[in-house]
Amino acid sequence: MRSFPLSLLLGATWVALTSAVKFDLMAATSEDMQVHQRCFSQYVPADTKVLVTINVGDGYNQRVDCEIKQDGEQSNVFGKKRDIKNDYTNAFDTLQDGEINICLSNTLDDGFVANPSYFREIDLEINVGQEAKTIEEITKTNHLPNLEEQTRVLEAMVDDILNEMSYLKGREAKLRNTNGK
């Protein structure tokens, strides 16, 4: 059996638990919105905590809207926010396995013509699983020192890793026993 360095395992799990992207969202008129809408998706299993945080930069005569929904057997809408000013946070539990879609649009006020100078800087972060639960709890009790907050998040991530490794070990043993018969 091969052994992997713990730092590689932690790094791979960090990528799996947190997704973040920063980009410029170009503004468009309401007629051209479908073309300029930006959507991001991530697969999330059923009964999993998800925390979506969106930070929006300054921009005049522009309105940033967001819709968070899950595709699957039944489509579920977890959040719709119109005219995000600075930041928006939404925490929810998934109801089924499927893709979580986060769609953002930047609409110009009436009377303005779209051009490259109209955009808003967007910082989107998606936390899934135990990390999302821990961050949500920490934000509720916002009086903790920063180092303690980071320690709790890392502790929750390590617990997630250990649970996943235990599950994979049991699954590997089950498959090995099935293959050996």
TrEMBL record:
Domain of life: Eukaryota
Source organism per UniProt: Absidia repens
GO CC entries: membrane
Protein's cellular compartments: Membrane
Topological type in the membrane: Single-pass type I membrane protein
Record keywords: Membrane, Signal, Transmembrane, Transmembrane helix
Signal sequence coordinates: 1-20
UniProt keyword annotation of Membrane present: yes
Protein name: Emp24/gp25L/p24 family/GOLD-domain-containing protein
Ranges of residues in domain GOLD: 37-128
UniProt key word Disulfide bond: no
Entry similarity comment: Belongs to the EMP24/GP25L family.
Lineage: Eukaryota, Fungi, Fungi incertae sedis, Mucoromycota, Mucoromycotina
Stored PANTHER family: TRANSMEMBRANE EMP24 DOMAIN-CONTAINING PROTEIN
Coarse class of the protein's main subcellular location: membrane
InterPro entries: Emp24-like, GOLD_dom
